[in-house]
Amino acid sequence: MLKNKKMSETNKKIWFGVILFVVIVLAGGLIYVVSLRTAKQSQPQEKVVATEKQPTALGDVIPQNAKNPEEFMAKVQEKADEIEKKYDSSLTEFAEKKWIKIFEEYNNITPDYFSKNIKILSDEIEKTNDQSTLFRVKYRIEKEDNSLVNSEDFFYLIISKSKKNELGLNDVKDNVFLTEEDIKNSLGKEGFAKITKIQK
């Protein structure tokens, strides 16, 4: 009798353990499924947006509200001047980058030295009568003894055939953008380029 009672208590404990194990497994599975679903919902959904190609407004290119041919031509000229100004600004930036590389190499200085000791005061693109394009830059050098020296450099970015012949630059290409190598190779030619040799 006592033996049967002990066995039934043992069976109850086993069944209780099995049921508890099954409940824990089911609860864990349920929590896992819910957490996966929540994580999926919290992720940003990839949106597919159809974009229409915006046509260029005709008024951005051709004036639409001119009252007469003279006004139309004046507005066209105004737009052309605006485009030319943007082009010159981009070209100046392009030429300035070339000058900085050439200047650093010519003077054997690092970009760090350049940024600390050289201050560009102004730079510009000049289109000459012979259809060449000249770059000019004015800058200030702060020397190690704290003295300041102003200087101006220049070089042809594009050189016409007539200017090339005038300066005796037989090995330089005409009417194309000159590379840094083209410019460096012709630094010694009078009138073509001037890069200041700085005294540190």
Question: Can you offer a commentary on this structure?
Answer:
The chain is α+β, with helices and mostly antiparallel strands. It has a domain at 63-194. It contains six helices and four strands; from the N terminus they run ααααβββααβ. A hairpin with a 5-residue loop joins strand 1 and strand 2 (133-142).
Write a concise keyword list for the protein shown above.
single chain, 200 residues, alpha+beta, four-stranded antiparallel beta sheet, 6 helices, 4 strands
**What is the mean predicted local confidence, pLDDT?**
78
State the helical fraction: 40-55%
Share of β-strand residues? 15-25%
Read across the widest sheet, the strand sequence of neighbours is 1-2-3-4
Distance between the termini: 110 Å
The SS-based structural class is alpha+beta
Radius of gyration: 38 Å
Shape: flat
Number of helices: 6
**Major β-sheet annotation:** 4 strands, antiparallel
In total, the number of strands is 4
What's a quick, concise take on this entry?
With 200 residues, the chain is of the alpha+beta class. The chain contains six helices and four strands.
Give the helix/strand layout.
Blueprint: H1 2-42, H2 58-61, H3 69-106, H4 111-117, E1 118-127, E2 133-142, E3 148-158, H5 161-167, H6 180-185, E4 193-194
Antiparallel strand pairs: 1-2, 2-3, 3-4
